[in-house]
Write a structure and sequence with these properties.
The structure is a homodimer. Chain A is of the alpha+beta class and about 290 residues long. Chain A has ten helices and seven strands.
Chain lengths: ~290, ~290
């Protein structure tokens, strides 16, 4: 059982369950609701009270109807005129088409890696299990993607508590019979990252999942995992389909800012830097 | 308690829980999985056996890895080269940007209207409740959108059993303080539908949800509800962001085919035709 301080530290591995909850922007005028969602409601009362206090203060500075956090000037939302224009003009956007139609919201605040995995497995067309709600159709969901094989690599209880590291993400993906090449940012330079990611985004059946420190690119706040969907060479920006859709829209980030946010040490991964995974799948060469 | 034959008939109101399960395409090679999803597993054993029999036969004619059903030649998937090109060139696609980042899969096979409602409320920025998984952030989900006010208009138990009619969809939407103009196809002609929908899709803060009979446009099979996202004038086609993502990709359908599929009588709505709802919201003029 980790101590509280350890839990706080570990929450930065990915998704940032604890830390990010301290700077929220709730909407005004929401009506009372029967809330039925399953979730990991692990925050303590004190943490919740603190979160609401900070959220109330944040309200004073943000539009009342905003339900995602404001973006720093360095990021461009896909749902802005400038962001839409970038997608229309981006040459390396093959990934976008299959990923955008599989876009999901992470099920809990520590499930960014799980949600990213589900999106990429579905985009690749990896044979999927069924699920009672959708019988007889087959599709990966955040409810059926974790099974005995993933449990052996990374227990669900660990994911629920602290998300996952870059290396754990790679290991998890490989249990599905896909190629998953893990690249730590410290092992390359910006130009190499740009070239590898750009090539993958322009290819069919290759996808890139990035693991980065949000606060290094002006977002709230800890480690996070989401798929890339496109690269705009003119602006030298990558499009992140952020799976914390309740918190941020998809954003275009400069290659330099993204690389810097990946080139940060992850205390939960023995201090190794964050980075990215290139995922591919060839159904005809599938081994298992 | 409705009889089985009534249930079968009623399932066509929207989403088509029973009928559509008879023509599925399961994937090969999916691995065993711990399935944890909540769902409405209401199909009888006989129905399930029949579904699997037909699905097995369908396998003989479709690619082993396909996890969505094949499209008729009259429909163009968004995730095809031709479909992507249409979006890049469509002048009336303002709706697409905010809807695509809110794209969700209907939670159960009768929740097409609920999923469409969630997408449009989030796209419009209607103040949302929180939900334990995402505290302190606020967003509509298929778990928190149904509450005491929607229950008074349309009980969740009814939605779970038979989906909803076009008029019920409009009434449900209005409980959220939005404008929801219900148009039955029989009350207008193709040109009027095209003009109204095209104008809404090109506007900010207006959205169109369509209610149509799948089999009238070559899909499996019953009544269905999903949002429109764009209109391509050159091809005279509308883009449907189909919320049954386990079953079909988003498709471009000709205005004539879509209108014909809406211009079908709904036995659960006193024989009135299906149609569409134009949804708008002005936060500054919000009454409640």
């Amino acid at each position: 059982m980790p101590s509280r301080s350890l839990a706080l530290s570990r929450s930065w591995t990915s998704c940032g369950t604890w830390i990010t909850s301290l700077a929220a922007t709730p909407s005004l005028g929401s009506r009372s609701s029967t809330i039925q969602s399953g979730c990991n409601g692990s925050a303590s009362l004190a943490t919740r009270l603190l979160a609401y206090l900070v959220a109330a203060l944040a309200l004073l500075a943000t539009p009342a109807l905003s339900r995602t956090l404001p973006l720093p000037d360095s990021l461009v939302g896909l749902n802005s005129d400038a962001g839409a224009k970038m997608l229309l003009e981006a040459p390396a956007r093959q990934s976008y088409w299959n990923l955008s139609i599989q876009f999901v919201t992470q099920k809990t605040q520590s499930f960014c890696g799980v949600a990213s995995t589900v999106m990429v497995l579905n985009a690749l067309g990896v044979p999927a299990p069924s699920t009672p709600a959708y019988e007889p159709y087959h599709v990966y969901t955040q409810d059926n993607v974790l099974d005995a094989r993933t449990e052996a690599v990374l227990p669900q209880a660990v994911i629920a508590r602290q998300g996952m590291t870059l290396d754990q993400l790679g290991a998890l993906l490989r249990t599905f019979g896909v190629r998953a090449e893990v690249h730590h940012a410290a092992d390359m330079d910006l130009a190499q990252f740009r070239a590898i990611a750009q090539q993958a985004l322009a290819a069919k059946d290759q996808y890139v999942i990035v693991n980065y420190l949000r606060r290094a690119m002006g977002q709230e706040r800890g480690g996070h995992i989401s798929p890339l969907a496109a690269y705009d060479a003119t602006a030298d920006r990558f499009l992140i389909l952020d799976v914390a859709r309740y918190k941020y829209p998809p954003v275009w980030v400069t290659a330099a800012d993204l690389f810097a946010a990946m080139n940060t040490p992850d205390a939960d991964n023995e201090g190794r830097t964050r980075g990215f995974v290139v995922v591919g799948y060839d159904a005809n060469k599938k081994a298992d």
